[in-house]
Structures are given as structure tokens and as C-alpha cells.
Write a structure and sequence with these properties.
The chain has 314 residues and is of the alpha/beta class. It is built from ten helices and ten strands.
Amino acid sequence: MAYAPATSEIYGDVLHECVACGSQKISYWRTKNFQYTDGADNKEFHIYRCVDCGTGFLNQPPHVQWLQAIYQYSGQALTQPVTIEDVLAREAEFPNCTVDAERMARHADQYNYSDNRRALDIGSGFGFYTRALKKAGYQTVSINPGEYENEVFRKLNGDEPVPVMFEDFEPTEPFGVVLMSQVLEHLLEPNRAIRKVSSLLTAGGVLACAVPNYDSFLVRLLGTKDNACLWVPEHVNYFTEQGLTALLEQNGFHVVKVEQITRVPFNALSRRLGLSGRPAAAADALVRFVQIPFAGLMNFFGLGIYINLYAVKK
């Protein structure tokens, strides 16, 4: 898998308060190098953490032009198209987006206390979440700037996302559901983004939001070697459950449900250990066997890989 070359490598502003709760009690946590992209020259990013809510963020983050250069093709920073056959084959091997999309669409519909049956999918990616919302009976609008992802989306759903960044999206009608899966960690001004989401929702409408968990066992175990949450420079914010809740509540939302999700690819261990053949098969079987009880334990203690949150507009 190839990744987008680093372009417009300009740092943004120095931040003086938490991007989630607004506290000015922030402190340096660690430094991580930008080294995943072809042509990268190991630029450093400094991660700060909020003393009050625990949320992390890049300080200084990339300039908006840098992020837009990455996202013009894909939220995953791909530099070449991917076929729908490849995407569906990966889902068949390890169901991930399909499972998450069906769960989030179901809960969003459950907590939509309005009579508005319009849904907005922000950062729609390959289109699994839009498809799930359609199956739940919603008229959907999807936005996503990624050219390569949008091509798969068209083949999966038969319609087309609006190819813009969320900051530039201006709808003419309100929504009963707004879904943001793995989006908020990419946005330079999450507080402004949530205010805009609130303005797009009708009263009683629901925001369904999923983000990586900064308190996850992966971050605690791997530190800056973790990429599920600490994927720089694409991820600029690293939310905790406390911080995400504060961000929503201070912008006129009532949080009605929070759950943590842990799901690890079956070949994660064998791939990390460089195994092949019978040893790889044995490691994959072990991961399959311990997956459910291990995930349940991590989620129970607040160490899950992802946070899913549902909040109703007051």
C-alpha cells in the first residue's frame, strides 16, 4: 500500500488550551516522528496532553494546507486507486467497517428523538456507513474529499459524495442524524466542528461519533509506536472518553450512550512478529480464540481501542 507524498509541510499555530475541554492546563507528553509517507524526512510532532480531561493533541499541528494535500485523494492517504473488489475482500476476511457501520446506524436511529429522517455522513470513506443509514430508512447526504475512496463509494451505493472538506459544506436543510466515524481526530478545530454539527441537526437529532481512544491499552503498551490512535500527522487530536464527553456537552449536546470497541485483526500478532506458515496460522488461531474475552475486558476497564459516543441535540 502506497501513501501520499508529504507536501506543503507547514506547521500550524502553537496551541495554549485543550482542544476538547478548553482547559489551559496542558503539558508536553511525547514527540513522534512523521515517517509513514514516501519522501518524509522525519519531521517531529510534539504531543501535548490536557491535565484535566486527558485529551492529547499535536502542538504545533500541521497547517490546514498540509492536511488538505493529504486528504485530497483519501482519508487513508492512498496515492493510487483501490478497487471495490479489494475493499470487499478485506471486509470478508476481517469484517470491520460493515460491523461498525451497522451498529452505529442502529444506535443513531434508536437515539434520534426527532422526526427528521435525513442523515449526514461526514467523512464517508468507502461508503459502508452511508449504506447502513440507507438500510435504516434514511435519506442520506455524504461528504468526503478523497477521490479514491469516493470511486469505491459510487460503486457501493450508486450515488456520489459531496467532494469537500466538512469546513466547506453548506447544506440547505437540517438533519436528524449526523454520523462522524473516525473523523474528529483529523480536524484541526474540533470545537468549531461540533458547533457546526449542532447547527446542522434539528432539535432531538443525534450525533453518532467514533474516535480512537487515547486511553487504550495499545497507547499504554506501545506509546508513540501506536498508530491506531497516534497516526501523525493525519490524526491531530487524541480523545479520551472524558474529553470527548466534555466537548459535546459544552456545545449543547446531551450524551446518551458511550461504549468502547476493541477488535484486532486476526493476523495482527503474526504480522508484528514476522511469522509465516504454520507458526503464523497458530498465532492467528490464538488471536481468534482470545479476541472476545480480551476485548470485553479492555472495554470494561476503559482501555478499548475505539470510543463510540451518541449525543442528542438539546
